[in-house]
Amino acid sequence: MIGISVVLRTRSWIVLCLGMLTVGAPAAFAADCPGHPDALGTSRTLVVDPREHPLIGTMQYRETLPLKDHEVVLTFDDGPLPKYSNQVLQILADECIKATFFIIGSQAKANPEGVRKLVAAGHTVGTHSMDHPLTFDRMPIDKAEAEINGGIAWTSAAMTDPSQLAPFFRIPGLMRAEGVENYLISRGIQVWSADFPADDWRHVSSDRVYQLAIQRLEAKGKGILLLHDIQARTVAALPKIIRDLKARGYRIVHVVPATAERPATPTTTVEWLLHPPTETTPIARWPRVPNFVFTQTRALPAPALADLNALAEHQPLLPLRTMAQANVAATLPAPGRALFAIPEGSVEVLLSTTLSRRAATRLAMAAEATRAAKDKAAHAKAAKGKAAKLQGRRTAHAAAAPDHVEQPKGTTAKGTTATGTAPKGPASRSATTRPTRVASLKKRA
Ligand SMILES: [Zn+2]
User: Which domains does the chain possess?
Assistant: First the structure.
């Protein structure tokens, strides 16, 4: 008895563990698909309100269906065409997958039974215009409206219960136009683009269709796959796509429109974005406008960090005034007046590089004259006291040295010299120099 109970307990643990492993995995839905234990199944039904999110599909719009990671919505356009549409229906039935079909009015007119089969199988049925013109982006709006309404009229006419028609529309060739979108929105019809196609309308192999479907899905991680149920290559590729979806852990979501009895699945706005922003995504946050009080006070209050709408982790984005910077600013010494004084002689150098030679010379002479006047004032007393003694020396010196006599070539008629240090002699000095100059001029002539 003990041995048996241990075995039973062990088995129940194994069953429990297996059950936990398969929670959320596709195998969990196999039970809903009698006779097909390996079916992918449909993981959940998403109810959407077209008026709240009228444009979906990241191939063209900002928003897409609020899918979780690894969730996929299958869509099929351009049917029903019995030869291929019936095969697609059978493949989906074997996998217990619910999809969305966008019907062409002329196809529904030619094959109303095909529309009824879709509804009976529990798929969602929307429309795709009357005759599938690839000119929705440039046709007159009244013609576009006629195309839209013709498709709706013939598809709903094919149904036993016209209320089964979903207010979902896909523009042929995804040739979107604002006028067309506005018209559809005004009628409460949701415009379905897609998140990725598999190029199954092009002349490619079914293998290529399978590869593109999986590669593009893997690139986005979830989304709306656009296929066509009127192509042999799609019929051939579909089983492989479904097998691979299951192997990679993808789940199928069935989308239906909200009604009075069936409210929309609660979602948040960011869930309608393919990649909602996360806490790790850096976002520039604009500062909030502080509440300034202009009438009561002359001094505006310094904004607090909270006014800048910054979270703690975003603080490096803001230029912060540190205490070290504040201290440096407070203790910087005031520069002394001597710092701005121009050193002696640098005026001439400065001017000679910036002015013409004549202007520089003129300014330099003026500066020299100013200095000379200063020196003269400073030595005035001393010079006065020794005037008689100096006069005696200079007279003797002038007579002994002819070089000195030649020097005053640049002197003016009044006898002022360029050298400021030598004080101007009294009247007797000019009396001694003048005869010398005259003599030298006579000698040259
Ligand atoms: Zn189409």
Answer: 24-272 (3.20.20.370), 347-375 (no CATH)
